Automatic annotation (TrEMBL):
Record-given protein name: SnoaL-like domain-containing protein
Domain of life: Bacteria
InterPro entries referenced in this protein's UniProt entry, alphabetically: NTF2-like_dom_sf, SnoaL-like
Domain SnoaL-like as annotated: residue spans: 17-96
SUPFAM superfamilies attached to this UniProt entry: NTF2-like
Length: 127
């Protein structure tokens, strides 16, 4: 899939797919124009779509691969809270993958029928 997620449950797999194939446009299609994302190093990207595109492009350039597994979802009308277990891998300087894991908290909004977008992406959860 490339484009918005038709259901909130499909956001994680769509994000993984776009990230793992290096598709920044596919990633951006999953975000609301007013989205905010807290990056793994703690920086908050809240300066608009171009800043988010740049940050996601940096992840792609670092050859990060990602796997999300939906743990729980709560939906209220057009808002969804997603809790996702994730694992990332990035090639280390010695050729061995550097592996990180966590639980992400994500807030998605339905902006149209079959069009769910991330409003808040917080891969660090409570870290």
């Amino acid at each position: 899939m490339s484009g918005p997620a038709p259901t909130p449950e499909e956001i994680g797999p769509a994000f993984d797919s776009a990230m793992n194939r290096g598709d920044v446009d596919g990633l951006m299609a999953l975000f609301h124009p007013d989205a905010v994302m807290r990056m793994a190093e703690g920086a908050v990207i809240d300066a608009g779509p171009e800043a988010l595109r740049e940050a996601l492009g940096d992840l792609i350039a670092a050859r990060v691969t990602l796997q999300n597994q939906l743990r729980r979802i709560l939906i209220s009308g057009d808002i969804a809270l997603l809790l996702l277990d994730w694992e990332s891998r990035v090639p280390g300087p010695d050729g061995q993958d550097i592996i990180d894991q966590g639980v992400a908290t994500q807030v998605a909004e339905r902006v149209a029928e079959q069009d769910w977008r991330l409003r808040i992406a917080n891969p660090l959860g409570v870290r």
